[in-house]
Amino acid sequence: MRYFFHIAYQGTRYRGWQRQPNVSSVQETIETVLESVFAKKLAVSGCGRTDAEVHASQYFFHLDLEKELAPKTIFILNKQLPPDIVVYDIIPVHQEANARFDAVLRTYDYYIHRNKQPYINNLSSLYQDLTLELSSMQKALRLLTRYDDYRAFCKSPDSHNTTIVKFESAQLFQEQNDTLRIEFKANRYLKGMIRIIVFRLLEVGQKKMTLEKFENYLITKFSEESVYPAYPQGLYLSHIKYPYLDYPKGIRF
Asked: Quick check: is 148 catalytic?
C-alpha cells in the first residue's frame, strides 16, 4: 500500500531534506525512525529538496508498506521523531501516486525582519535597518509571471534538464512588527532560485538595481555578476498542491 505522509520541519539543524553522506538531513532522520518503528529498512520519496537551514511548514513524502497502518502510527512516530519534525497526517493514496512528480503547484514563503529579534533569529532572515521601496519590489515580483526561463536566477543552471518555470503569482506582504513576507507560487523551482530572486529584490528595494536591469535578467537569461542567494533561514516550503490532494497551506512556526 502506498501512503502520503504530511509533515513539517524546522530546518535549522539540517543540511536540507535530501539524504547526504556525513551530514544530518531531514530524510535520513525520518528514515531512521521509520526503520525503528517498522523493524525494516525503508526509503521515502519526498516532494522536493530544500536547502540547508530551510524550513517546510508543509511537506509530503510517499512510502510503500505491506500492511495497513494502525491508527496510533502517527502518535508513535511523533514520540520518536525529534521536536523539530512532526507528522500531521498519513493518507492512503493510489499505488501510482508520486509525492514529487504529481505536484502541480508549490508555494514558498520568504520572511524578512529588519529589527533584531532574537526569538525569531532562526525562523526569519534579518536584514537590519534596510530602507526598502516596497512598491518597486512589488513591480519586480509582478514581472515573474510574464517570463518562464529562470536560468539567470539559478545557482547551477546546467545541472537542470530545463530552466523553464511557470509562476502563478508572486507577491509581497507587510506583516506584524514590520516583517515582510514574499510569497511565490510556481509549478517547480531551480536550485537556489528563490533565494537568488529575493537577493535581487532587496537590491531593487534599496535602489541598487533598476527594474529594467531586473527584467533584463529574465529577457536575456543571463547574469554577468556573481550569483548570491539570500539567507536560508527565512525560507519556507509552505504548500504542495496535487490534483487529488490539496491541504490548507502550512502555518509558519
From this structure: no
